[in-house]
Amino acid sequence: MNALGVAPGRAGINRVSFSDADMAGRRWLMTRMADAGLATWMDCIGNVFGRWDVSDGPAVMVGSHLDTVVMGGPLDGTLGVCAGLEAVRTLQDAGLTPRRSIVVVSTADEEGRFGGMLGSQAICGEVGPDWIAAAADSDGNRLSDALSTQGLDPTGPVAWSPESIAAFLELHIEQGPVLERAGEAIGLVDAVSGVFNWTVTLTGEANHSGTTPMDHRRDAFRGLADFGHAIDRIIAEAGGEQSRLTVGKATLSPNFPHSVAGTASFSIIGRDADESVMEALAEACRSSLAAAAERHGLGLDIVKHSWLKPTRLDAGIHQRLCRLCDRMDVPYRTLPSGAGHDAQTFARHVPAGLVFVPSAGGISHAPNEHTEWESIRPGANLLAQAVADLAL
Length: 392
Prior knowledge:
Blueprint: H1 20-35, E1 39-42, E2 48-52, E3 59-65, H2 78-93, E4 102-107, H3 118-123, H4 129-134, H5 143-149, E5 165-173, H6 178-182, E6 186-192, E7 194-203, E8 207-208, H7 220-238, E9 244-246, E10 250-253, E11 259-260, E12 263-272, H8 275-295, E13 299-308, E14 311-312, H9 315-328, E15 332-337, H10 342-347, E16 352-357, H11 373-391
Parallel strand pairs: 3-4, 3-5, 5-16, 6-15
Antiparallel strand pairs: 1-2, 2-4, 6-14, 6-16, 7-12, 7-13, 8-11, 9-12, 10-12
Helix pairs in contact: 2-11, 7-8
């Protein structure tokens, strides 16, 4: 899979949602699913499914996503999709026939290029044509245009009924350092942090850097810097141990060495496992941004792209995974996830479980994202055991 998305002059894997590389990855997956004898299709927004069809009743769904961030890593999402397909192939190789159908899924735009987690939210009926028609990425590209360009249908039906999914399982790298530091093979996630996603624009006045006195400037960059300096205070006053605030993308205009910045546009991503804390963080961000804008004579605009609530995962699935780990004699721990995952969306509608394997150095969303195969194997085997346990 990771041969698709290697771009000349760019490090890492580049399968950004609805790019040609992303779609090539989806088509490649469909051929491998068909090779395994699965009924295979892509829905109207790019979700890919492979179904081992043995029953009309609710199916066990397993998978993750194939899209990456720009210059992303080889495992985030991709591991969960490929391990889900391999779990099915392993059951087939063992000559087992499930009582429940098994569906391997690769969701669309999990990385949130257009806000939220499009694929899993659409499957679960949380977003539909109206949301898709209004969605755009941080560069102003419309989701409906991106879908149409790739031959997909932004108005088509994609939602599954909750009664059609018996459970959802996902394997993922931890994207953090906890398991590696503890020397533990597996993390069983009990809760996933919520996420809010904003784009903020501060508008001042572009001017000459040599002739404009410091006390006459309406410098948008200084407003951005002012907010950035306040992040530690916001976390200390409004947040907690699981709180995260990140400015990950920023653009200045005119973006020229000898010009005062007239506009600064930047992202704010906030996370916490408690929605009341998320609300406090969001309010503190709004207040700090307003104060920074007033101090520097700037206009302020906040576009709120998405608000994903924190989610508790299914206790019954979690207990089942614990029992399987005990049976396999594999050390594990229960922990929350600071990053959002498809399992978070599914858990709001159907029983869902999320399994972590360690990340080397806690690094993800970067070219040097890595986990040794010896560290992946216990989680992959647990996923296969869990699929078998639920389907057989």
